[in-house]
Amino acid sequence: MSTGVLEVRNVTQRFDNRAILNDLSLDFWGGHVHAVIGPNGAGKSTLANTIMGLEGYTGHDGDIVLDGQSLKGVSITERAKRGITLAWQEPARFEGLSVQRFITAGAKVKTAARAGEVLSTFGLDPDRYLSRSVDKTLSGGERKRIELASILAMEPRIVIMDEPDSGIDVEALQRIFAALIQFKTSGATVIMITHSMAVLKQADHAFLMCCGKLLDKGNVDRIAEYFGSKCLPCDHINQPSAEEI
Amino acid sequence: MDKSNIIAQLYESISVDPRHPFGDDVARVEVHENKVVGVHLVPGLKVEAGETKDGIDAYIGVAEGVEIEKPVHICFGVLPETGLQHIILNIEIKQNSRASILAHCTFPNARKVEHLMDANITIEPGARYSYFERHVHGPYGGVNVIPNAKIIVHEGGEFSTEFELIKGRAGRIRFDYEATCHARSVLEMTARINGRENDQIYIQETAHLVGEEARAVLTSHLALRDQARAEIYNTMTANAPRARGHVDCKEIVVGNAFAKAVPVVEVNHPLAHITHEAAIGSVDSKQLQTLLSRGLSEEEATDIIIEGLLSKKPNPDRQYNNDPTLG
Predict the structure, then answer these.
(1) Are strands B28-32 and B35-40 parallel, antiparallel or unpaired?
(2) What residues of B are in contact with residue A76 (Cβ under 8 Å)?
(3) Crossing angle for the helix pair B298-309 and B285-292, to the nearest 10 degrees
(4) Which has fewest Cβ within 10 Å: A187, A195, B210, B293?
(5) Measured between CB atoms, which of A80, A101, A131 is closest to B293?
(6) Would you place residue A3 in the very low, low, confident or very high pLDDT band (cuts 50, 70, 90)?
(7) Predicted pLDDT of residue A242
(8) What pLDDT was estimated at residue B160?
(9) How many CA atoms lie within 13 A of B39 on its CB side?
(10) Which structural domain range is residue A104 located in?
(11) Distance (Å) from the alpha carbon of B301 to chain A's nearest alpha carbon
(12) Helices A170-185 and A140-154, axial angle in degrees (round to 10)
């Protein structure tokens, strides 16, 4: 019997007849920070997109279950209304749309003050950023922080962060790690998709994926040790032996 | 109806408090149908307007070296459901002067209104002039807007014009602006239009960069829904050394709407350079899914994306940028 608030049950996700997720089962416990780690091509982002129900990711076998209820046929909007959201690895740009409008669009409290507050959490000065456009004039790191600020304002129950450290400098990464604590304090479940040891070490619990399958799960230090010693030097990326799987 | 009542109604239709819309230091002109119903000028600004049978024939001039500190407000309107307003404008921004015009064109009840404009605009050497035109139309789509402008930007001059039609039905728009840019001049022409139902929009913007180091940007951002149709023809030519230009054309098409964009860029000098970007299509999938993953419906998300596309670009260099009437 699972105790997970969000369960991935025997999910197989195929593209061009290739199983990117291969009979994958995971449980994400409420209020925990989970890391899903694995080499490039392991299927981590596919897992994130599948949980969110993005376009092109809904035709899988198996099931995603939230609070005991299947999410089969449930739209992205409805999944978000039930508390799931996703921070993209490369956040979208919105030409002409102000940072304030972007943050308040999905915020629980739709005020400029709240938008400013969440921006500050990520080290961005509201006076400088609220009126700016979420466009190419912002760096990738700035957009990433603004996206996470918008998620913080949404007050979700489950936050999926796809590669939260990509394109981020060290100072910004520390802000993101601090925000993890805020999410956790608010009772949210965080799922961090990563191949970074630094990000992995922020988690309470880890899943190790390769080739669309779960290789191991459990204690972060143990997974980190395995990932560092076996996965990073692996010369047959995404082709682990049957014994390893 | 007396003039003050008409002025009050014109301002009400553009959501400006009609009791005290502007201070004495703000020049303004109000035109209803073919009547100039209000004028207030400031030093250095000359306005001569004669009534014609279906509109006005006006001269607007800014004297040499004068800087009009606050934007000049012009309100063109037709309040009844039917009418014709033909505006003939001659604008001269004299050497080294600076001015900004914020024009509201309001047709709140239009079922069959024609608004025509024929403008000749001259920006003399070193002068800077920006013109922002906001259209406020009613819900019936009964407006036919046909503005034509010939613009000359002389050496070192700067001219920007921005046409905005976001509130109400566009109706039928057919505009044709053509600018000639001399050495070291700067030109920006922008159109932001929201079309829906059976609105029809035709835009022709042309810039000729004839002088050394002349620069120009032509921007068209449109959102089209329902059965709305748009055709956009942007033409830019450059035949002088170090002339630089860019054409930016973006249209979001929703439902059964239709958009066609025809960019023409022509370079006749080896040291000139023009770039072009165009994007026509449905709402960007990644933008849409980002907003859906925040709990917005598809319609709400589409509205927000369109709001961004059609938003006024902040530009602190434009005098009208923070004008309270622009909201």
Answers:
(1) antiparallel
(2) 289, 292-293
(3) 130
(4) A187
(5) A80
(6) low
(7) 45
(8) 96
(9) 11
(10) 93-154
(11) 9
(12) 10
